[in-house]
Design goal:
Radius of gyration: 23 Å
Number of strands: 26
Structural class: alpha+beta
Helix content: 10-25%
Strand order of the largest sheet: 5-6-11-10-9-8-7
Largest sheet: 7 strands, mixed
Strand content: 25-35%
Number of helices: 10
Shape: globular
Oligomer: single chain
């Protein structure tokens, strides 16, 4: 998965438990032919922006990382905490590790470099449950005007977290296959939930193959996960800087071996029960009413359209095992996996994905074939590498099943709502047309579904990813 990126230079994140500093360290020699890494300079304002709200390269809103709006002004964000001390800790984690803070009692301020402005934390009077206010003086952030820490027991009622602390969820890692992940933090109160997996053996830089996350962590979230687990000296995933991938490593010294720590994020499931065919599915796992007109930024953040409303875990046992919370329906991706390019299904002469209904289970089994080049399934490789331009705004959110190839019956069910969803794809600049692969391998000549086995497996068709939510 994304081997074209993972084969590039690996980069090391060297850290102590109280402060993280970033450095690059390649699998191979760097461009200068030396072993010395090139330091990554962390811009304080950009770091703060990404700790609260993610934006794309053009500066448009993508999704919130920390904080949630509780009223009509969506730039006013709230975070739920147990007490003022927790609020102070979370506030400091929003900044580049090693930042200088001016403290006077419970008041804290940080002046950003390069005339980036001053951010101030001040205790509140406790009205409406607010414990502290954060203001930004001369620091203009996208989609953030102020931040407030609120007592959790004052937080408005919501549908709760998809997972509870301690819940065990089976997920895939690139290095070890299927592994048991544990819920470290629940979703809600203005914070995404955290799932983590810790390997049982130490590996080196050359051995490490990071799990491909569906939503990328901010640096402050990396610090939070490590602090919650009280861990150092571990490999902990990878993320993007622009179009290049960098592995993150936390160790006491360069070259130290360590176990693999993987983590991903999930959101609350509120409002998903109300989703309808034709609604817009966003990259933060939320759904917007299909009748509204999206802004330009919202169109960018929209990764697909709801094409079927129902519970796919009722007929897909593998989906129920790995993603039991994905009970609301199916979403078709904004684009084809290869942008409409035709693709040969496979070079295998065996039937593997034989389920007529369960696309997630089919794709799961077919994916195992790609370890062996003699049974390589090109269509699965295409969906596993979607999107090809490494645009992280199009990745499936971690609260979903992740992208897969729909089974035959799922494709037919999706077609029933075609009159509704087809126009919706045009509104977001995407498309979904006839003639794409299903994950069901049957020797059949139906027009709508390209089956991909035996006599017709060498024909070409499109790969259009779907996900369960």
């Amino acid at each position: 998965m994304k081997t074209n990126l993972l084969d590039k230079a690996l980069f090391l994140l060297l850290a102590r438990m109280t402060a993280l500093s970033f450095a690059a360290c390649g699998d191979d020699d760097n461009e200068n032919g030396t072993d010395d890494p090139d330091a990554l300079v962390m811009d304080q304002k950009e770091y703060l922006q990404n700790s609260l709200v993610r934006v794309d390269d053009a500066g448009n809103f993508m999704y919130r990382v920390c904080g949630a709006p509780l009223d009509a002004d969506t730039t006013v964000l709230y975070v739920g905490v147990d007490n003022l001390e927790e609020a102070k800790t979370l506030f400091k984690q929003l900044f580049v590790p090693g930042s200088t803070f001016n403290e006077s009692g419970d008041n804290i301020s940080c002046t950003l470099e390069k005339k980036g402005g001053t951010v101030t934390f001040a205790p509140a009077d406790g009205s409406n449950g607010v414990l502290a206010d954060v203001t930004f003086d001369g620091c203009n952030l996208v989609a953030v005007s102020s931040l407030h820490f609120m007592e959790k027991n004052a937080w408005p009622e919501n549908s709760g977290s998809a997972y509870k602390v301690g819940d065990r969820i089976w997920k895939q890692t690139l290095m070890y296959g299927e592994q048991c992940w544990i819920c470290l933090r629940e979703a809600g109160n203005g914070q995404r939930g955290v799932l983590y997996y810790l390997g049982d053996r130490s590996v080196s830089a050359n051995e490490y193959k990071p799990y491909v996350p569906t939503t990328y962590p901010t640096d402050s979230e990396v610090a939070q996960v490590l602090q919650l687990l009280d861990k150092s000296g571990v490999w902990c995933g990878y993320k993007y800087y622009s179009t290049r991938s960098y592995s993150l490593y936390v160790a006491q010294q360069k070259g130290l071996r360590g176990p693999v720590l993987e983590f991903s994020f999930f959101n609350e499931t509120d409002a998903l029960d109300l989703a309808m065919v034709g609604d817009y599915y966003m990259n933060d796992g939320t759904v917007k009413n299909g009748d509204i007109t999206l802004t330009a930024a919202e169109k960018e953040a929209c990764i697909g359209i709801v094409v079927w409303k129902g519970n796919p875990t009722e007929y897909d046992k593998q989906l129920k095992k790995l993603h039991p919370h994905c009970t609301h329906g199916l979403v078709a991706a904004k684009y084809d996996a290869r942008y409409g390019e035709g693709i040969i299904w496979s070079n295998a002469d065996i039937e593997i994905g034989t389920d007529m209904n369960a696309g997630f289970a089919n794709t799961y089994k077919l994916r195992t074939c790609n370890i062996d080049k003699n049974t390589f399934i090109y269509a699965v490789d295409a969906v596993d590498n979607y999107p090809y331009n490494t645009d992280e705004s199009l990745f499936a959110p971690s609260c979903s099943s992740g992208w897969y190839i729909a089974a035959m019956t799922e494709c037919e069910t999706m077609k029933e709502g075609e009159k509704i969803w087809k126009a919706q794809f045009e509104k977001i600049g995407g498309s979904l047309e006839h003639g794409f692969w299903s994950s069901t391998e049957l020797d059949d000549g139906r027009m709508y579904i390209a089956w991909g086995v035996q006599g017709i497996k060498r024909t070409t068709s499109k790969v259009h990813p779907v996900l369960a939510f």
